[in-house]
Specification:
The protein has one domain. The chain contains 8 helices and 4 strands. It has 219 residues and is mainly α. It binds zinc ion. Zinc ion binds next to loops.
Length: 219
């Protein structure tokens, strides 16, 4: 079952298209919104609404941006702290060459994990991640159908796992961030994919909570 598609039925403009979709016609809009109310508040629930049913969001888009900034810069700070700790270890390694070598090696690792300095690009990155979640690329293998047909046999599409959508590529992301492809790959791919993965995880948790809440209804 696709909870997003169920939620999308709650959008006024989709109401007349809902007949027979999703294979669970017995669910009423009241069932669906009651299940959404069981999803714990937070990033996942807000993203679920943002993607599928904007009217169901509890937070304003400004509050959602603040949640995302909190996640992004919280991670930035952890990486910066790790670098400072590694620098202190180098400075206090003493005479032992083994300890010095290990401390320098750890510092190199922390530096490699460090993201670019805080600046305007992070806001653009955050908004682009949300845009990608709301508007993923149509799967090129199944053209968005979620299944492929070979010799009259219908199979779930393996590339998109039946969702009909796949992640956007680095070219699209670099263009949205207003930079060249190599700069994106060298500096911004890691924070971008980190935030996208974090949001995807939160979305999956919210989705699971909603499936659980719908359980007795769809069983
Ligand atoms: Zn596909």
């Amino acid at each position: 079952m696709h909870t997003g598609k169920l939620m999308a039925r709650l959008n006024a403009k989709n109401v007349r298209f809902d007949a027979g979709s999703g294979g669970t016609p017995e669910l009423t809009p009241a069932d669906i919104s009651a299940a959404l109310a069981m999803v714990p508040p937070g990033l996942g629930r807000e993203l679920l609404c943002r993607v599928w049913w904007p009217d169901g969001a509890a937070l304003t888009s400004h509050e959602l941006r603040m949640l995302l900034d909190g996640a992004l810069f919280g991670e930035w700070r952890e990486r910066a702290d790790a670098m400072v700790i590694a620098q202190i270890r180098v400075a206090t390694a003493g005479e032992s060459t083994t300890r010095q070598r290990m401390a320098r090696h750890a510092l190199d690792g922390a530096k490699a994990r460090m993201w670019p300095s805080i600046g305007e690009t992070y806001a653009r990155l955050r908004d682009t991640v949300v845009e990608e979640l709301c508007d993923p690329r149509l799967c090129p293998d199944c053209k968005g159908h979620g299944h492929t047909t070979t010799r009259d046999i219908e199979r779930a599409c393996t590339r998109c796992e039946g969702s009909g959508h796949v992640a956007r590529g680095p070219t699209w992301r670099a263009e949205r961030l207003g930079m060249k492809h190599p700069s994106y790959l060298a500096l911004w791919d890691e924070p971008y994919r980190w935030l996208l993965a974090r949001c995807t995880d939160e979305l999956q948790d919210a989705d699971r909570a909603m499936v659980k809440a719908l359980g007795p209804v769809v069983a």
